[in-house]
C-alpha cells in the first residue's frame, strides 16, 4: 500500500509517494498551478491509497481543488509543525556544506534549493508512524 504526501504552498508544493515502510518511491517540487494534474498522474502511476496533506496556510485551498478534481481520493490531514526545519536538516545531511560554508552553523544556512519535497516525505512518515502507534495502542 503506497501513500502520497503533499506539502501545499502558494506557488509550489512538495509531493512524495512512499510505500508502507516509509521508503520514498518518488519526490518532487511541483508548481501549485499544476497540482491536480500532477496528483492525478502520480495516482495512475503509483496507485496510492490516500494522500496525506500538511495543515499549513494554503492546505484548505489545495484540499478543495483536489476533492473537486479527484472526488474518490482519500485525503488525510497531518500536523506540519516544524517540518520545514526538519527538512532543512535532512537536506544538509544529504548535501553537507563544502568550503567555508562548513564553518557556519547549519541553523544559519538556507538550502540553495526548495525542500518542499522533503517536507512531504516527513509528513508521509509522520502519518505512517501515527498509524503504527495507533495499532500498537490497541
UniProtKB/TrEMBL annotation:
Give the domain of life. Bacteria
| Gene Ontology biological process terms, A to Z | nucleobase-containing compound metabolic process
Q: Which InterPro entries match?
A: RNaseH-like_sf, YqgF/RNaseH-like_dom, YqgF/RNaseH-like_dom_sf
Q: Where is the YqgF/RNase H-like domain?
A: 1-87
SUPFAM superfamilies linked to this entry: Ribonuclease H-like
Name of the protein in its database record: Pre-16S rRNA-processing nuclease YqgF
Q: Which organism is it from?
A: Selenomonas montiformis
